[in-house]
Amino acid sequence: MRQLLIINADINKGENTAALIGAYKDGAEAAQCVVKELVIADLKFNPNKQFALPNTDTEPDLLQSINMLKWATHIAIFCPVYKDSINTRIKGFFDRIFMPDQVFISSAGRMDINFSGKTARIISILDEAAWDDWQKNQHPTYLAIKKGILEKRQIKPVHTSTIGHLYSLQNEYSKKWLQKLYSFGLKLI
After folding, report:
1. SS3 of 121, please?
2. Torsion angle, CA of 187/147/105/35, rounded to 10 degrees?
3. More confident position, 189 or 160
4. Across all residues in the chain, what is the average pLDDT?
5. Does the first or last residue of the chain, that is N or C, have fewer Cβ atoms within 10 Å of its Cβ?
6. Hey, is 49 helix, strand or coil?
7. Among 7, 42, 54, which Cα is nearest to 158's?
8. Strand 74-81 and strand 3-8: pairing?
9. What's the confidence (pLDDT) of residue 179?
């Protein structure tokens, strides 16, 4: 049975992101997938890398996030992009969890952070300015997460989708994406 972890990287926890996540989740549940959700905005952690001190414990929310990532066979990241980049708190989360030089210390000792054998999909949701820029030069907003973080941690393949600014969930563009995300969840690609 497939195990899906949905990471909501929308720090505003917006309605549009919630609808897109809901469509993906509905598709996955229709395919008998077990689904868990992780909302980065609800986590308590320091997004800045600190020097590893010998007796320093990693924040409980990050340890729980690592355990959820290790549980999952597929990871779906819904990541809004504002003015050409992701929010610094979201970047801090990815740095703290995935970067190779991170040291995770728990009360039981060092954590194993091997993520090989997992697959992922990054869904970039662009604001109006980022969408206009993307249409002009097709600049991949997800590249830092895909190449620099996930693939370095042996999470492969990493599929990507770029969604333009959603003005309303009722227009044809939004409905097309809701249906497409449902089918991605159904197939977990």
Report:
1. strand
2. -10
3. 160
4. 84
5. N
6. coil
7. 7
8. parallel
9. 96
